[in-house]
Amino acid sequence: MEQNNVSFQNVKTGEPLSQKEIDEMFMRRCLQLAKNGRENAKPNPMVGAVIVSGDGRIIGEGYHVRCGEGHAEVNAFASVKPEDEHLLSQATIYVSLEPCSHYGKTPPCADLIVRKGVKRCVCGCVDPFAKVQGRGIRKIREAGIEVTVGVLEAECLELNKRFITFNTHQRPYIILKWAQTANGFLDNGGRGMAISSPFTKMLSHKLRAENDAILIGRVTDERDHSQLNVRDWSGKDPMRLVIDRHHPCFEGLDFSRGKTEVLQQIMQYLYNNKVQSLIVEGGAITHQAFLDAGLWDEIRAETLLSTSVENSVTSGTPAPMLPHNVRLISHEAYDGNVINTYERM
Ligand SMILES: NC(=O)C1=CN([C@@H]2O[C@H](COP(=O)(O)OP(=O)(O)OC[C@H]3O[C@@H](n4cnc5c(N)ncnc54)[C@H](OP(=O)(O)O)[C@@H]3O)[C@@H](O)[C@H]2O)C=CC1
Ligand SMILES: Nc1c(N[C@@H]2O[C@H](COP(=O)(O)O)[C@@H](O)[C@H]2O)[nH]c(=O)[nH]c1=O
Ligand SMILES: [Zn+2]
């Protein structure tokens, strides 16, 4: 369990770090590396790996750069210098996600770890992907390598929340997003209005670029002719979906059994098409259907804090009520607008 002959100190107190603190320090480095895959690893998860010698020196590092290419562990082992190879038998490999155990586009990393013969393997979190789900950890343990799971687990899960939700719940990660006046309207007397500022509109387009699909209800589409594209940021436009019984967004969508059933069919369609994340942009009826079905992971509510707007907008489509089981995770202020982001408690 102990790193051989190694002692790290807390920079402030001078106290020696516990093994847990040492593990967290190297896992934090894995997370830093993993984030470099943000643009190109998709639809694969972002993963970072660090190899630490028995005397506490990083002798290898890597991350999953691009889908179809080497995984983090492969790149980390490849970076070990020939003169350090003999240190592997006493080394620990840290990986932010459980090493894979299956033949995908590349061979199993669990086999590579066993072959390299390290002493210990520390994983941030279990991979919920159906072909892995603990099999990588088991394979490594059965080869006699000590395995620790769950170091900085919350951070590791958060980094790949889209991939994790998709594989755990067989549906995309769902963000409900709306903008409202301070007195709680989504529009002005049923007519679409610009509630966002140019800056927060740009942030919405950034959010669109970061997610795979975007969905609105029929009334919003009819009134606003929503483009739902990424024109104020750079990146790919998300898949555009409108819930409209007269123009179903895919063949076979059955509207005969109520709103929740419609959403369940859409979730199945998105899962089948490997859509890992979805922004729901409203309107109120559409948001309410997702809330009623419990189909949401995050809510981003923007509020325009203007009394003159409040005085002039006295009727319209009421903004959805926040459900009771939310936790505020971020509060950002931009000019006269605030964006509150909530996650499920
Ligand atoms: N400020 C903001 O952030 C936003 C404001 N808006 C504003 O909101 C207003 C529209 O909102 P609202 O009136 O609530 O309407 P919606 O845009 O939510 O559309 C509702 C309609 O979509 C269809 N629909 C939605 N969900 C389902 C489901 N699960 N199953 C079956 N059908 C479904 C139904 O169509 P049908 O009736 O045919 O059955 C339903 O009546 C617009 O004025 C728009 O400008 C809209 C989005 C964001
Ligand atoms: N008015 C309003 C929003 N409205 C949402 O954005 C859609 C328009 O997208 P686009 O056609 O691409 O500009 C519109 O139909 C509705 O879903 N959103 C916001 O963040 N802030 C706003 O002030
Ligand atoms: Zn792998």
Automatic annotation (TrEMBL):
<comment type="function">
    <text>Converts 2,5-diamino-6-(ribosylamino)-4(3h)-pyrimidinone 5'-phosphate into 5-amino-6-(ribosylamino)-2,4(1h,3h)-pyrimidinedione 5'-phosphate.</text>
</comment>
<comment type="similarity">
    <text>In the C-terminal section; belongs to the HTP reductase family.</text>
</comment>
<feature type="binding site">
    <location>
        <position position="208"/>
    </location>
    <ligand>
        <name>substrate</name>
    </ligand>
</feature>
<feature type="active site" description="Proton donor">
    <location>
        <position position="73"/>
    </location>
</feature>
<feature type="domain" description="CMP/dCMP-type deaminase">
    <location>
        <begin position="21"/>
        <end position="148"/>
    </location>
</feature>
<feature type="binding site">
    <location>
        <position position="281"/>
    </location>
    <ligand>
        <name>substrate</name>
    </ligand>
</feature>
<dbReference type="InterPro" id="IPR002125">
    <property type="entry name" value="CMP_dCMP_dom"/>
</dbReference>
<feature type="binding site">
    <location>
        <position position="109"/>
    </location>
    <ligand>
        <name>Zn(2+)</name>
    </ligand>
</feature>
<dbReference type="GO" id="GO:0046872">
    <property type="term" value="F:metal ion binding"/>
</dbReference>
<keyword id="KW-0511">Multifunctional enzyme</keyword>
<dbReference type="InterPro" id="IPR024072">
    <property type="entry name" value="DHFR-like_dom_sf"/>
</dbReference>
<feature type="binding site">
    <location>
        <position position="71"/>
    </location>
    <ligand>
        <name>Zn(2+)</name>
    </ligand>
</feature>
<dbReference type="GO" id="GO:0008835">
    <property type="term" value="F:diaminohydroxyphosphoribosylaminopyrimidine deaminase activity"/>
</dbReference>
<comment type="similarity">
    <text>In the N-terminal section; belongs to the cytidine and deoxycytidylate deaminase family.</text>
</comment>
<feature type="binding site">
    <location>
        <position position="100"/>
    </location>
    <ligand>
        <name>Zn(2+)</name>
    </ligand>
</feature>
<keyword id="KW-0686">Riboflavin biosynthesis</keyword>
<dbReference type="Pfam" id="PF01872">
    <property type="entry name" value="RibD_C"/>
</dbReference>
<dbReference type="Pfam" id="PF00383">
    <property type="entry name" value="dCMP_cyt_deam_1"/>
</dbReference>
<dbReference type="GO" id="GO:0009231">
    <property type="term" value="P:riboflavin biosynthetic process"/>
</dbReference>
<feature type="binding site">
    <location>
        <position position="231"/>
    </location>
    <ligand>
        <name>substrate</name>
    </ligand>
</feature>
<keyword id="KW-0521">NADP</keyword>
<keyword id="KW-0378">Hydrolase</keyword>
<comment type="pathway">
    <text>Cofactor biosynthesis; riboflavin biosynthesis; 5-amino-6-(D-ribitylamino)uracil from GTP: step 2/4.</text>
</comment>
<feature type="binding site">
    <location>
        <begin position="283"/>
        <end position="289"/>
    </location>
    <ligand>
        <name>NADP(+)</name>
    </ligand>
</feature>
<feature type="binding site">
    <location>
        <position position="220"/>
    </location>
    <ligand>
        <name>NADP(+)</name>
    </ligand>
</feature>
<feature type="binding site">
    <location>
        <position position="179"/>
    </location>
    <ligand>
        <name>NADP(+)</name>
    </ligand>
</feature>
<comment type="pathway">
    <text>Cofactor biosynthesis; riboflavin biosynthesis; 5-amino-6-(D-ribitylamino)uracil from GTP: step 3/4.</text>
</comment>
<dbReference type="InterPro" id="IPR016193">
    <property type="entry name" value="Cytidine_deaminase-like"/>
</dbReference>
<dbReference type="GO" id="GO:0008703">
    <property type="term" value="F:5-amino-6-(5-phosphoribosylamino)uracil reductase activity"/>
</dbReference>
<keyword id="KW-0479">Metal-binding</keyword>
<dbReference type="InterPro" id="IPR002734">
    <property type="entry name" value="RibDG_C"/>
</dbReference>
<feature type="binding site">
    <location>
        <position position="224"/>
    </location>
    <ligand>
        <name>NADP(+)</name>
    </ligand>
</feature>
<keyword id="KW-0862">Zinc</keyword>
<dbReference type="InterPro" id="IPR004794">
    <property type="entry name" value="Eubact_RibD"/>
</dbReference>
<keyword id="KW-0560">Oxidoreductase</keyword>
<feature type="binding site">
    <location>
        <position position="228"/>
    </location>
    <ligand>
        <name>substrate</name>
    </ligand>
</feature>
<protein>
    <recommendedName>
        <fullName>Riboflavin biosynthesis protein RibD</fullName>
        <ecNumber>3.5.4.26</ecNumber>
        <ecNumber>1.1.1.193</ecNumber>
    </recommendedName>
</protein>
